[in-house]
Design goal:
Helix content is 25%, strand content 21%. It is an alpha/beta fold. A hairpin with a 3-residue loop joins strand 5 and strand 6. The termini are far apart.
Length: 197
């Protein structure tokens, strides 16, 4: 699940100018100025993607420099439709029927930026709360598994982005799912064999 900014206006304008998916919603913002909040790979890559539709994309980041991969940063810096607002903390998303502006603080000064939409890419939170039993997880809530995707609870496997791992990619999730399915099938076969013995 996307990590929320938790600022006034974010929930109120979700679906009316606030989005967490550039590919899903970018086309709705043709020829508008947009704000992208974040400084990692997703923010920079999605910001670059949004320039297909937007007249201008402002990437707002709370730090002095981006955390994205150098190749993504170079591509974004070379894109004339992207500008960067560093050391800025978004404080509020404001609008009427839809988003009209973002209020942020930069170097102790309150500022405003008129935009038609705000795309938030500040990370994700694992949806591990769906389990009604405790399984071991890391400090961020990602489920810890062994190499067969087995959790700390016998008979429960986890795979994909909910699992503690280096990458969060579709290819990784597919591999995790395959491994978990094979391991679960072997587990069930072993239970059946034990019951027959």
């Amino acid at each position: 699940m996307p990590r929320y900014l938790s600022v006034p206006g974010e929930k109120e304008y979700w679906g009316r100018g606030v989005s967490y998916c550039a590919v899903c919603d970018g086309a709705f913002f043709k020829d508008q100025e947009l704000a992208v909040v974040g400084g990692g790979d997703a923010a920079v890559e999605e910001g670059d993607f949004l320039t297909r539709y937007a007249s201008k994309v402002h990437i707002i980041h709370r730090r002095e420099e981006l955390r994205a991969q150098p190749i993504l940063i170079d591509r974004a810096r070379a894109n004339p439709k992207i500008d960067f607002i560093f050391d800025a903390q978004v404080k509020q998303i404001v609008g009427g029927d839809k988003v009209k502006l973002v209020r942020y603080e930069q170097h102790g000064q309150a500022k405003e930026l008129a935009v038609g939409g705000v795309f938030i890419f500040i990370g994700f939170v694992p949806n591990s709360a769906l389990l009604n039993v405790h399984v071991d997880h890391d400090e961020a809530g990602y489920i810890v598994t062994d190499r067969n995707m087995q959790t700390s609870v016998d008979g429960i496997w986890a795979g994909g982005d909910v699992r503690a791992q280096l990458t969060k990619q579709i290819a990784t999730a597919v591999g995790d799912g395959t491994t978990a399915a094979v391991a679960a099938a072997m587990y069930i076969s072993a239970l059946k064999d034990a019951a027959r013995a």
